Request: fold
Amino acid sequence: MSRRAPGTPSFEELSSSPKLGLGLRTQIVLALSVAFVASFTLLGVATVRITDRAGGIERERAAEASARVLASALDGLAEERSRNAPILAQALLEDGSVAGVEVAWPGIEADAWGLVGHRPSAVAPMARGGEVRVHLRPTTGGRPGSDLLLLYVAFTGGAILLLAYVALTHLIVRPLSALTASSERLAAGRSHVEVPVGGAAEVARLAVSFNRMAAQLRAEQSALEARLGELQATTSELESAQDQLVRSERLASVGRLSAGVAHEIGNPLAAILGLIELARDEELPADERAEFMARIQNETERINRIIRDLLDFSRRGQDADQAEGAARESSDVAEAVADAASLIAPQKDLGRVTIERRVADGLPRVQGAADSLVQIVLNLLLNAADAIDGEGTILIEVSRHPDDDDRVRVMVSDTGPGIDPAILPNLFEPFVTSKPAGEGTGLGLAVTLALVERLRGTITAENDPEGGARFVVDLPAEPGTA
Ligand SMILES: Nc1ncnc2c1ncn2[C@@H]1O[C@H](COP(=O)(O)OP(=O)(O)O)[C@@H](O)[C@H]1O
Ligand SMILES: [Mg+2]
Reply:
């Protein structure tokens, strides 16, 4: 599960995103506030401007009407007009919006009541010359209409903001938070994760596909688990099959061994039985009887040899304690080689076989008892002597392993005809022999292999391309002496 392509960030790296911006809610509120403030400020300013302008026009019209009324009233009064003008002007002044009234008589100075400025708000001509000027009070603050409007704008803006906030929270923010929480749970390894489908269509679709993805993940996970279970079952089946194979292999080798024993012992036994039958003949000449007896003895010795070899071979299965005991001893390889060479000399007709020894200096002792080591070398020497069958040389080389300082190598090579390729693959199995019955049991190399393995070493056999056989035995050095 934890296998990742190089360069792919881990879950921890992915989940701790270092720079997170503002939350969705805050961002939405900020954006909406900016948008509403901008648009409603513009709207408010425009509305105030428009109402101001409308109010101004109305005031101007009212001032014009007042001026015209006064002018026509003064026209109607004819000669009396200058006497009555103050009364009429005063009446106009009573209207709160009029600040001052001027009446300009033709030819003489103008009369003025109230406050008059440079520019009148309205001017009306009189029929007999002169004009009436009306001055309005300047508008001071207090625009109740626009204040109301601003209040309305602020209230509406706030309400829309609140509404938008609630709607967005409901449609987007809350479903998205649920989705985020669920995907975090999924990423943390929880398999049963489901988000409620809701909110805006896009968000709801996202939730649906998230649920589908989670379900698929769940399905894949359980498929994987099922596969794992199958694999485990297969593995245990394989293991039991292997056990069975080992058992049947062991049975087969027991069978092979018994067949070999039966054959090896059966032949001399049959010969012995035949010879005894012949020797029973009372009229048999004494010298013939003596010859039969000698042959019976020969065959019996052969059986004896086979049984001894078999006993040696069966030591392969000895209990581990004894093997360990042997391994705890140590022995000098050069000495063992010398012993084996001296043992073989009287045993065989070695008149024309030269045994050469090359032993390197300063070799470590090897693990194991010396007699095992002597037996190993002796078996190899006997085989080599058998193979040479005439004139030849056996070379025993003892050296350090070329690649491993903690091992000693014993190499036995000869100038014989080499190992028969037909038996080379099974050379170390019991009863594999190329020798005629009575000469070889085929147990020598099997015993040798068992001894080498008891010393925790290895043995290999090969044919030298230049002729002759070569056996290489590698043995572990005694710890601390290498
Ligand atoms: N040095 C050798 N040169 C050629 N063949 C050999 C040599 N050593 C062993 N062999 C072959 O291996 C066979 C098995 O040897 P071994 O297990 O000692 O049984 P045996 O000597 O009783 O035949 C021999 O019969 C022989 O064919
Ligand atoms: Mg042999």
User: Anything to note?
Assistant: The chain has ten helices and eleven strands.
